[in-house]
């Protein structure tokens, strides 16, 4: 069972448009509404793979009620923490070439009591969890140290924790020694304070995060592939992708694939890449099901291509 924690979830509305033209009236060719938030997406991908998952998240107002209903419809067990504020709604516009424009709302401000209730819900519902995945930005009202507190709490209970966040929240949590952190290239560059131009740069940055406390680093390097740096060394994998339709939630799908495959080693890395490659070929923030995966498209290299220049340099 994989328990997910999403402190700032959302309803995600995605519109597919011919082109994004500022100041114009745009007509969508397709649209959809999905449960949103990084941890929510991890739960959705885990549930689609047939595994049990429990989503812990604050829910407020009509949007929060709709979010809970959408998750339940996907077979996800929900442990909602009632909050006074309104759950946020985000908007994404996707063009035919895969270019994505997002508008993310700030979300509600959580009170001290609501913050404690969220931590307590994780504590009481985490028995039997194989992994706890804590994902996304922190809402207003939660200090950057909130994730660090949660990591320490999870470890005291003897569970493993994967963390997907960025900025001060990631930096503060590293000292609590999360078992896995999953930055993308930009988040990795921000964490170490220097640009990443090659896969080798990413390897060095991931090593730095391990020195600061991360047990393993699973880094998404966009179209170039994914990098896993842990106590056993460095491994790199990539996948062929025919058409990119939307990259919303692709990193979350990757983390779900990694954890569903055990969260350790080259098998988990290959699963992460397969899930991420499948996700970018789906509309909106749809999460891949097993039928969407193509493990034969995944290439796990014998060596890490440290000299490979990133198609999208970071930092």
From TrEMBL:
Q: Which GO terms describe its cellular component?
A: cytosol
Which Pfam families does UniProt cross-reference here? Answer: PfkB
Domain (Carbohydrate kinase PfkB) ranges: 23-289
Concerning its family, UniProt says: Belongs to the carbohydrate kinase PfkB family.
One GO BP annotation is:
small molecule metabolic process
Q: What are the EC numbers? A: 2.7.1.56
What protein name applies here? 1-phosphofructokinase
Q: Which organism is it from?
A: Streptomyces rimosus subsp. rimosus (strain ATCC 10970 / DSM 40260 / JCM 4667 / NRRL 2234)
A Gene Ontology molecular-function term? ATP binding
What keywords is this UniProt entry annotated with?
A: ATP-binding, Kinase, Nucleotide-binding, Transferase
Record gene name: pfkB
Question: What is the main EC category here?
Answer: transferase
């Amino acid at each position: 069972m994989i328990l997910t924690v999403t402190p700032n979830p959302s309803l995600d509305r995605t519109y597919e448009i011919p082109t994004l033209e500022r100041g114009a009236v745009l007509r969508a060719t397709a649209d959809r509404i999905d449960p949103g938030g990084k941890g929510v997406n991890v739960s959705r991908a885990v549930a689609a793979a047939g595994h049990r998952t429990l989503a812990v998240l604050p829910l407020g107002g009509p949007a929060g009620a709709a979010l809970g209903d959408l998750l339940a419809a996907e077979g996800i067990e929900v442990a909602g923490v009632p909050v006074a504020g309104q759950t946020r709604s985000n908007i994404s516009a996707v063009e035919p070439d895969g270019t994505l424009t997002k508008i993310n709302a700030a979300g509600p401000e959580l009170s001290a009591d609501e913050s404690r209730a969220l931590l307590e819900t994780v504590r009481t519902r985490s028995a039997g969890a194989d992994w706890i995945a804590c994902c996304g930005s922190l809402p207003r009202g939660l200090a950057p140290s909130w994730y660090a507190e949660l990591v320490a709490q999870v470890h005291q209970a003897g569970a493993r924790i994967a963390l997907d966040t960025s900025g001060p929240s990631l930096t503060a949590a590293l000292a609590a020694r999360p078992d896995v952190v999953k930055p993308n290239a930009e988040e990795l560059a921000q964490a170490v304070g220097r640009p990443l131009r090659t896969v080798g740069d990413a390897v060095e940055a991931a090593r730095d995060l391990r020195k600061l406390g991360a047990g393993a680093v699973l880094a998404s390097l966009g179209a170039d592939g994914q990098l896993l740096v842990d106590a056993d060394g460095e491994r790199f994998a990539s996948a062929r992708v025919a058409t990119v339709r939307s990259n919303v939630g692709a990193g979350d799908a990757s983390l779900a694939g990694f954890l569903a495959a055990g969260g350790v080693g080259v098998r988990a890395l290959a699963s992460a890449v397969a899930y991420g490659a499948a996700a970018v070929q789906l509309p909106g923030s749809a999460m891949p099901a097993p039928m969407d995966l193509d493990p034969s498209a995944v290439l796990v290299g014998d060596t890490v291509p440290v000299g490979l220049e990133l198609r999208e340099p970071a930092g």
